[in-house]
Write a structure and sequence with these properties.
This protein has 16 helices and 12 strands. The chain is α/β, with parallel strands linked by helices and 387 residues long. The chain folds into 3 domains: 145 residues, NAD(P)-binding Rossmann-like Domain (Rossmann fold, 3-Layer(aba) Sandwich); 166 residues, no CATH class; 71 residues, Rna Polymerase Sigma Factor, Chain: A, CATH 1.10.1740. The chain has a 7-stranded parallel β-sheet with strand order 4-3-2-1-5-6-7, sandwiched between helices. Strands 11-10-8-9-12 form a 5-stranded mixed β-sheet, with helices on one face. The longest helix has 18 residues. The termini are far apart.
């Protein structure tokens, strides 16, 4: 029997890589839903290729355009994830949640009851709404697999184990394009240079987060929530080759490492086939990299945003939404060339320390509305600064 799978965010890099994996094993899968925000041409091309009967286009203007442009298509087109009950009548085997940004939280929460297993590649949802996600996972007895390479690696190393047995976790960071660039040259960093990641092909937003190392701040928060660990048990090490993704040191004296090529198809494939072994084409074991991993502690003078972790509470709070919203806002200002790279870093540091935002460290999100309302509040505050 074919496995039923839905891919939320199918036109993004994770979604496209998921489709590449399924294409190899097409006879064993039935895709019953794809979604996009605005990329109507690509999603209709995907739907036709994989014979998908249902698509969701979240952006209203793009949805209306698609209804006109593809009016002769037999594909069912929806504008909201409120239609999931109509689209998925019996539980899917898998849902891949890969919508980028906080906009992915609502679809993720709505999807959990419709699937036996959910693969989450949306770090913002986990960072800001993990307590809400966890509640739904338990309620509907849905299995969860994290897709980010670092968290998938930790999850794999911990398989059939207990996070209480963990002594330390080490998450690796490539350091982005500026790991070896002298700090005095940071004033000359252009958008083009910041987007040029040495190892990974990623979207613009995550590429800039990698350049500032803010992505590692978020990945530590993500790991803390998923594996229920204190921040002092999670450390970041720079590793320029992106070959080693996580190290887990256990209380019994064992230390386990997980390595793979810098290719997101590997964690995606192993997330889909988490109880099976599926062959995937990869490079031979790279002994040259293994013999020179170049593991080092982060230089916080060059990458000061890592120090934000020292100021976070050891429990879930709405402050994580402040951090996500502030970073998103300022990264897009940098991409628009409204601020330079050094100012981007300084503004994230300064704004995240605003006194009026500190109170949210003591407030736990009780609903998705709490998170979205705070996102809007922080965005309005940032608008008022005239950056």
């Amino acid at each position: 029997m074919k496995k039923k799978i839905a891919i939320l965010g199918s036109t993004g890099s994770i979604g496209e890589n998921t489709l590449k994996i399924i294409k190899i094993d097409k006879k064993n899968f039935e895709i019953n839903l794809l979604s996009t925000n605005r990329n109507i041409n690509k999603i209709f091309k995907q739907a036709n290729e994989f014979k998908v009967k249902n698509i969701i286009i979240s952006d209203l203007s793009s949805y209306n355009k698609a209804k006109t442009k593809f009016r002769k298509s037999s594909i069912n087109v929806y504008n909201s994830f409120d239609h999931l009950n109509k689209i998925i009548k019996t539980k899917n085997d898998i849902i891949m949640s890969s919508i980028t940004g906080l906009n992915g939280l609502s679809p993720t929460l709505k999807s959990i009851k419709h699937t036996k297993k959910i693969l989450i590649a949306n770090k913002e949802s986990i960072i800001c709404g993990w307590n809400l996600i966890y509640k739904e996972l338990k309620k509907y007895k849905t299995n969860f697999v994290p897709v980010d390479s670092e968290h998938f690696s930790i999850w794999s190393l911990l398989k059939n184990g207990n996070s209480n047995n963990i002594e330390k976790i080490f998450i690796t960071a490539s350091g982005g394009p500026f790991l070896k660039l002298p700090k005095k040259q940071f004033s000359n960093i252009s958008v083009k240079k910041a987007l040029k990641h040495p190892n990974w092909r990623m979207g613009k937003k995550i590429s800039i987060d990698s350049a500032t190392l803010m992505n590692k701040v978020f990945e530590v928060i993500e790991a803390k929530k998923i594996f229920n660990l204190d921040y002092n048990k999670i450390l970041i090490l720079t590793h320029p080759k992106s070959y080693l993704h996580a190290i887990t040191k256990f209380k019994n004296g064992l230390t386990k490492l997980l390595l793979h090529d810098p290719d997101m198809k590997i964690p995606i494939c192993n997330s889909i086939y988490s109880t099976d072994i599926k062959s995937i084409k990869t490079h031979s074991l790279n002994l040259q990299i293994l013999n020179n991993l170049e593991l080092k502690k982060v230089d916080t003078k060059k990458f000061p945003l890592v120090k934000l972790l020292n100021k976070l509470p050891n429990y879930t709070s709405l402050y994580e939404t402040v951090l996500i919203t502030t970073n998103d806002y300022l990264v897009f200002k940098f991409l628009e060339k409204k601020i330079n790279f050094q100012r981007l870093i300084k503004l994230i540091e300064r704004i995240s320390n605003f006194k009026e935002f500190q109170k949210f460290k003591k407030i736990k999100p009780k609903s998705i509305d709490d998170i979205y309302d705070l996102r809007d509040y922080v965005s309005l505050k940032l608008d008022s600064l005239g950056i």
